[in-house]
Amino acid sequence: LEKILYHDEL
Amino acid sequence: MNIFRLAGDMTHLLSILVLLLKIYATKSCSGVSRKTQELYAIVFLARYLDLFTDFISVYNTFMKIVFIASSLAIVWCIRVHPMVKRSYDKDLDTFRHYLLVAASFLLALFLHEKFTFLEIFWAFSIYLEAVAILPQLVLLQRSGNVDNLTGQYVFFLGAYRGLYILNWIYRYLTEPRFTRWIACVSGVVQTALYADFFYYYFISWKNNSKLKLPA
Predict the structure, then answer these.
(1) Using the beta-carbon criterion (under 8 Å), do A6 and B12 form an inter-chain contact?
(2) Nearest C-alpha of chain A: how many angstroms from B50?
(3) Chain segment B14-39, per-residue pLDDT in tens
(4) CB contact under 8 A, A10 and B67
(5) Which of B123, B143, B171, B174 has the most crowded Cβ, counting Cβ within 10 A?
(6) Contact (CB<8Å) A7/B50
(7) What share of chain B is helix, strand, coil (3-state, %, to 5)?
(8) Upper half-sphere CA count for residue B45 (Cβ side, 13 Å)
(9) Among B56, B57, B71, the residue to mutate for chain A (most A Cβ within 10 A)
(10) Would you call B56 and A8 a contact, using CB atoms and an 8 Å cutoff?
């Protein structure tokens, strides 16, 4: 989950 | 997603649309740095490798595809389209952009979140994006006169960066575990590069005169 949250911007 | 992030993404999209409009309407890329556009294409291709591994939202996936496709389309126009190609002045666009690519990649090898293929390319894309505007700014400064659409293109790109900083401040204040040094520090550096341009942009706007950059 952390990794996904980390790259949630464009 | 907060309002600053959304507004940032929209101005980013708008900047690309303005550039495409300029190239399409005038069939010319005068004042546009092909090198900056190629760097952006590399930035998007390197960053969105996670298109195949991570899904965040339909919005994110859609925007990633739009950014990759539009940046490739712009590079294609400048390199291949017969009329647009003719208007490209390579003598003005002399920035050694491969040095930026090499330096960004080297930095990514040392400064990254995790030593994995995707993370290194992600960090590389962040560093490269921070400096990718340099060939464009140098070209504008060398040519002095900036046509309206090119000026607006750079203005919207700078606005996008500024809004992303507001987005990070907002997230820092509202999300308990929001820390992302690589993106934020690079983002601030990137935005600072626009300071000079913005200064002259506002002067010309205030005086209602054509944008001119000092040599």
Answers:
(1) no
(2) 9
(3) 999 999 999 999 999 999 999 999 99
(4) yes
(5) B123
(6) yes
(7) 75, 0, 25
(8) 10
(9) B56
(10) yes
CB of A4 less than 8 A from some CB of B = yes
Q: What is the ipTM of this complex?
A: 0.84
Cα(B19)–Cα(B214) distance, rounded to whole angstroms? Answer: 23
Backbone torsion region of residue B68, taken as left when φ is above 0, otherwise alpha when ψ lies between -120 and 50, otherwise beta: alpha
List B145's β-bridge partners, or say none: B212
The predicted-structure confidence for B100-118, as pLDDT tens digits, reads as follows 999 999 999 999 999 999 9
Both tokens of B37, joined, read: 């556009």
Residue A1 touches chain B, beta carbons under 8 Å: no
Q: In this complex, do A10 and B63 lie within 8 Å of one another by their Cβ atoms?
A: yes
Dig out the tokens for B151 from the structure. 């000026």
Strand-pairing partners, residue B212, are: B145
Residue type, B213: L
Helix B181-192 / helix B148-174 crossing angle, nearest 10 deg: 150
Two tokens, residue B170: 């907002």
Please give the structure tokens belonging to residue B206. 């205030």
Would you give the DSSP letter of residue B28? -
Question: For B24, left (φ over 0), alpha (ψ -120 to 50), or beta?
Answer: alpha
Distance in Å, alpha carbon of A8 to nearest chain B alpha carbon: 6
| pLDDT tops 90 at residue B145 | no
